[in-house]
């Protein structure tokens, strides 16, 4: 079992910044791929950014150039630095850890961007 705890969400004005954190614990493997997803009201959950075992990153087109995913392997923690936030970034942000054919999810953290 893997437990994921997100933090760092909140209310911010358009153009502002937030930094999300996701701490993994339990039966984790070092350098395991991890991702950030988000789900806005009435919409499907979508991939925002991912970081692979070798540190390679992948971003949704909508956040490229504004968001940066990173990890601290010593702490089994990933981060999502979000700059230039837009109202359309408003959503619940979830951390994902995939291993052994299973997907683990955190409970999410709310990000609200006011115009």
Tell me what the structure shows.
The protein has 115 residues and is mainly beta. The protein is 0% helix and 57% strand. The strands form 2 sheets. Strands 2, 4, 5, 6, 9, 10 and 11 form a 7-stranded mixed sheet that branches. It has a 4-stranded antiparallel sheet with strand order 1-3-8-7, with no helix packed on it. β5 (46-51) and β6 form a beta hairpin. The termini are far apart. The model has no long low-confidence stretch (mean pLDDT 94).
How is the secondary structure organized here?
Elements: E1 2-7, E2 10-13, E3 18-26, E4 34-39, E5 46-51, E6 57-59, E7 67-72, E8 77-82, E9 91-99, E10 102-105, E11 109-114
Parallel strand pairs: 2-11
Antiparallel strand pairs: 1-3, 3-8, 4-5, 4-9, 5-6, 7-8, 9-10, 9-11
- Name the quaternary structure: single chain
Class by alpha and beta content? mainly beta
**Major sheet:** 7 strands, mixed
Strand content: over 45%
What's the N-to-C terminus distance?
40 Å
Give helix and strand order, one letter per element, not per position: EEEEEEEEEEE
- Residue windows where pLDDT falls under 50 for at least 5 positions: none
Mean pLDDT: 94
Number of strand segments: 11
Radius of gyration: 13 Å
- The DSSP helix count reads 0
Classify the helix fraction into a percent range. under 10%
The general outline is: globular
Brief account:
The chain is 0% helix and 57% strand. It is mainly beta and 115 residues long. The strands form two sheets. Strands 2, 4, 5, 6, 9, 10 and 11 form a seven-stranded mixed β-sheet that branches.
